[in-house]
């Protein structure tokens, strides 16, 4: 009987540690230890199995509900970022350089398929149409889509 109380206490301690050391491993092990303690304290019978199973199902449903609803709660709004980086608010992840179309340059790094090219004295992030291009190869910008500068080797 005392060993099952120890399992219960160990489970509570592991779950408490999970709050400080995130990663879910201690939480899962703590829950299993707690349920083993409950199972043993209830006499290891069918009633104990039904109780542990019922608690597990109810807790699982509650956790799914809580995870879906948490960002909308008053405390969840303090934990989650409410702002979004959108183009309407002026956010641009990469500068759109449509003036590069047709310009030639040199692959500064290997393009596998993305990399850096030296175009008109500036280092520019580029991506090929899928081919790998060695560093030092002459390239031409064939298209600019959003912030992606698409290049191909000049000799193609």
Task: Characterize this entry briefly.
InterPro entries: Membrane_assoc_protease, NA-bd_OB-fold, NfeD-like_C. By secondary structure, the chain is an alpha+beta fold. It has helices at 2-20, 25-41, 46-69, 76-79, and strands at residues 104-107, 114-119, 122-128, 138-145, 148-153.
Q: From N to C, what is the helix and strand string?
A: HHHHEEEEE
Number of strands: 5
Biggest sheet features: 5 strands, mixed, barrel
Give me the Rg, rounded. Answer: 29 Å
Average pLDDT taken over every residue: 90
Number of domains: 2
Q: Count the DSSP helices.
A: 4
Write a concise keyword list for the protein shown above.
2 domains, OB fold (Dihydrolipoamide Acetyltransferase, E2P), 5 strands, 156 residues, 5-stranded mixed β-barrel, alpha+beta, 4 helices, 20% strand, single chain
Overview of the molecule:
The chain has a 5-stranded mixed β-barrel. Helix 1 (2-20) runs antiparallel to helix 2 and helix 2 runs antiparallel to helix 3. The model has no long low-confidence stretch (mean pLDDT 90). The longest helix is centred in the middle third of the chain and has 24 residues, at 46-69. The protein contains 4 helices and 5 strands. The protein folds into 2 domains: 2-79, no CATH class; 98-153, Nucleic acid-binding proteins (OB fold (Dihydrolipoamide Acetyltransferase, E2P)), CATH 2.40.50.140. It is an alpha+beta fold and 156 residues long. 41% of the residues lie in helices and 20% in strands. The chain crosses the membrane at residues 7-36, 48-67. Its main location: membrane. Keywords: Membrane, Transmembrane, Transmembrane helix.
């Amino acid at each position: 009987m005392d060993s099952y109380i120890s399992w219960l206490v160990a489970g509570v301690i592991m779950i408490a540690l999970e709050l400080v050391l995130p990663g879910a491993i201690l939480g899962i092990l703590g829950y299993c230890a707690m349920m083993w303690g409950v199972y043993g304290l209830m006499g290891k019978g069918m009633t104990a199995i039904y109780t542990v199973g019922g608690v597990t199902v109810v807790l699982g449903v509650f956790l799914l509900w809580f995870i879906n609803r948490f960002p909308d709660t008053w405390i969840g709004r303090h934990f989650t970022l409410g702002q979004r980086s959108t183009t309407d608010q002026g956010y641009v992840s990469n500068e759109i350089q449509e003036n590069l179309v047709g310009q030639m340059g040199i692959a500064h790094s290997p393009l596998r398929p993305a990399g850096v090219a030296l175009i008109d004295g500036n280092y520019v992030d580029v991506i090929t149409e899928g081919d790998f291009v060695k560093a030092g190869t002459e390239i031409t910008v064939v298209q600019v889509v959003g912030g992606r500068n698409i290049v191909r080797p000049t000799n193609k």
